[in-house]
Specification:
Oligomer: single chain
Helix content: 55-70%
Number of strands: 0
Radius of gyration: 16 Å
Largest sheet: none
Distance between the termini: 35 Å
Length: 97
């Protein structure tokens, strides 16, 4: 992120906190959506894209993939699969939640 003045930073940081909170809410219990048709899960993707655009102050019609990659965020479908695989791995290693 480019260097920001103190005034701009104090205005933008609360929005970034909200975006991170929203991302956590998107990830919460998303493993319950495993097996649900993709067209239902894709309704969550625009919310994640809007969060990424807000964090980077990007225009509405910019490409979203590079922004998601810089944030190390997976698309919703892959987030769900990763969470299922991670829980399965932890279960097989004996350190399940």
């Amino acid at each position: 992120m480019p260097s920001l003045s103190t005034n701009k930073r104090s205005v933008i940081l609360p929005f970034i906190d909200k975006c991170i909170y929203n991302k956590n809410r998107l990830d919460y219990c998303n493993s319950l959506l495993y097996g649900v048709p993709d067209h239902h899960k894709q309704r969550l993707q625009p919310a994640m894209n809007a969060n990424a655009r807000l964090i980077f102050c990007a225009p509405k019609y910019c490409h979203i993939s590079p922004l998601l990659q810089q944030l190390h965020w997976l698309p919703i479908r892959l987030c769900i699969e990763f969470k299922i695989l991670f829980i399965t791995f932890k279960l097989l290693q004996g350190s399940a939640p």
